[in-house]
Structure prediction request, 582 residues.
Amino acid sequence: MFKTVKRIIDWCGEFKGRLYIGFVFSFFSTWFMAMPVMVAAYTVGLLIESAQNGTEFDKKWIWQSVVLIVVFVFMRFLFDYLRARFQETISYELVAKERLAIGEALKRVSLGYFQQADTGNILNSITTGLHSLENMGMRMIDSFVGGYLNFLCIFLCLLYFSPYVSLIAMAGAALSFLFLLLVSKHSTQNAPVSAKAGRDLTAATLEYARGLSVVKSFGQGGASMAAMEQACRDCRDICLKIEWGFVPSNCLHLLALKIASVAMAGASCFLGLSGEMSFPIMLMFVFFSFSIFGGLESISDSAHVLGVIDTAMDQIDALKEGNYIDKDGKEISLNRYDIEFCHVDFGYDERTILKDVSFTIPEKTSTAIVGSSGSGKTTICNLIARFYDVKKGSVLVGGYNVREFTCDSLLQNISMVFQNVYLFHDTIMNNIRFGKPDATDDEVYAAAKAARCHDFIKVLPNGYETIIGEGGGTLSGGEKQRISIARAMLKNAPIIILDEATASIDPENEHLIQEAISELTKGKTIITIAHRLATIENADQILVIDNGRVAQQGTHMELMKQDGVYKRFIEIRQKAEGWSIS
Prediction:
């Protein structure tokens, strides 16, 4: 429990000063909360004593006590306000920074990281985990620290008047603390299980939503819900288990405080009736006996939640402390843009994809990569961009090993057009401008015209300001691909990687896109993955990948003279492209 409290305080970092000032304001707020009770109890006691003794009561004191109570109440709320201003905004500022830091961290990990930690886990940590910290972190710290600070202030006040009654209060607080330790232990044990149930539920929900089109097409609605229903049941069961485990210890914690309150009131009355305590002081103790533990009663919620917060912080640290692929990288500026693979081996987990691959791509030349599905073509492009690191060998860009670069300094030299295009849920203007954030509107228009997408954009309801669905779901495959080409054109990088860039283009527009790609690739180092003969036959060199190896290498004419994989591939493509209905 104390470890988590310290961890949250350390997490505050640059805001620690504000946190500590908030504790000071909380301390004064507590004193000003206690003082009206003391003044009221003392005044009532004087009135009763005056009535019993038949003496005249000083009426000025009534007005003075009223003024004092009003001032104390005002001061209490003033310090409460100041505490809130200094403390409660800290978590919102810190969590915003944490989310940005996680975003920066995720840019620097290998894509293999996202295969090991699925999207549901990452999403749950960034949303639910940070939300717990954002909403409960500062409140729990204030409740825990402020609660015991509140008790300590009133205890010291009572200790001055009656050590005996004050010891009863201390005994009640100590006994309740033991039960709070049980609450905290239970929460710490179950928080990781609860977090896993939450991650599983998020992952199951995402999978269900993403697969709805397949589910509907096969009429398997019941089967698709099974995983989500199981995740919901698991989440429910663990929450009930945590709640049932929390209730007994919490009830004992509250019972200890209530018994202590009754014992304090009884002891105060006994001392007052026996003449060992004046009547006003006795009343003050009776009043305090039912409010002294107010701050401690709510601490059970803090102890219950601290385990959840601790687990959430573990998840966040795991995301931020990922295995950065470029942790030893440097900012490198290139003056040439050739690419070389030297005896590269690579595989995903236990599955080997590339085996002893070596080749050179001179700068300002075009290289086509062909081969059967799963042969390793896209993997080669991913290794050039260092989305993954090789298992063995090296990949050189401009004479430098890609391991020497930071991700940003390497990728600023590369534009990629993927077969599966992803567009952001934003305007078309901003999606194209993603290639060059500081581009002017005119530069965006020029890139769109060159990519042959200006005409269809203009007829959309809001033109370039049209908001497109997440992933580009409101556009056709060909429209998305042309926008991605415009984005790459705007970036104007010296190395261009085209992964089936015309795969989703209709035949009527293919020649336009080919013209656009010709503009994009002029004077640059080009790597093209393609199956269409028209795309690859004019390449300066062709790499034929077969079963993870470079089976053949040369120009189209050279390879056609050889009896090998490429010639058979071309013959199959020619038959496929020349078919007709008889």
